[in-house]
Amino acid sequence: MHHNPIDIADLFYTYPDGTQALKGISLSIRSTERVALVGANGSGKSTLLQHLNGILLPQEGTIQVGQYPVRAEYLKDVRNFVGLVFQNPDDQLFMPTVWEDITFGPMNQGMRGDDLSHRCYHAMHAVGIDPDVYRHRNSNNLSGGEKKRVAIAGVLAMQPQVLVFDEPTAQLDPRSRRQLIQLMQTLPQTQIIATHDLDMALDLCDRTIILSRGQVVEDGPTEQVLSNPEFLEQHYLETPLSYSRPYCLVKDAPLVNLHH
Asked: Which residue among 1, 2, 158, 190 is buried most deeply as judged by most CB within 10 Å?
């Protein structure tokens, strides 16, 4: 396990149309951290995520994941080290059955036979999916929450040291959202979570990084970063609902109105 599994130094990226998406990003993610990456649309979140496992390569600056620089000649190692869970699981699930989706990545790593089966069974159990019930099902017929779990299992089966999530709670109903957060709390890997769900960030992440117009404008403890409504508004973010509600719950006590 690497002390700092991700190090980014002075990262710049400009799209072919001239849009400067990243402007000198520098940050380090420590082992086993769960870090929320937040920012308004167009802030650079998705562009940064796509650099973490080599979908995009740095134009200026450097990224190191474990012992591997994110460069073309190391892409296989980088993608084994960093697993990316897409916002829409339909972009990640494309095989005829759940089992084939989950085994796809490890098979590309060269795994076969009992080792492959054991690894994929373990990944399914880790996300709360019964292999005997789900292995022959078609992913198209699953609920949104079930698809998210299958997509995560497929990434876990490749045994990455870092998990990168792009809007993991998007399009989930409240129950599926809660179950997913509980699942993510149990995963031991380093996690980087790009999200508009700031209440999820409060529940899940000790650290939050705010991106705005391609730059890091805040990086610190989540409760501190997200408790400044004026700063959030300046960067087109809403205060988490749990901070804006006029009521709070005290265990074994009635609701208390904080306005009185």
From this structure: 190
91-to-83, 85, 227, 250 alpha-carbon distances in Å: 14, 10, 34, 42
Residue-level pLDDT, tens digit, the chain, 260 residues = 567 799 999 999 999 999 999 999 999 999 999 999 999 999 999 999 999 999 999 999 999 999 999 999 999 999 999 999 999 999 999 999 999 999 999 999 999 999 999 999 999 999 999 999 999 999 989 999 999 999 999 999 999 999 999 999 998 999 999 999 999 999 999 999 999 999 999 999 999 999 999 999 999 999 999 999 999 999 999 999 887 655 444 444 444 444 43
Domain that holds residue 40: 6-257
Specify whether the CB–CB gap between 152 and 177 falls below 8 A. Answer: no
Q: Which two tokens stand for residue 109?
A: 């790593």
8, two tokens: 């980014």
Angle at 151 between CA 242 and CA 213, to 5 degrees: 55
Beta bridge partners of 60: 12
Cα(195)–Cα(197) distance, integer angstroms: 5
Q: Is residue 71 domain-resident?
A: yes
Q: What is the pTM of this model?
A: 0.89
What is the Cα–Cα distance from 186 to 97, expressed in whole angstroms? 26
Does residue 104 fall inside a structural domain? yes
> Any idea what the CATH number is for the domain that residue 88 is in?
3.40.50.300
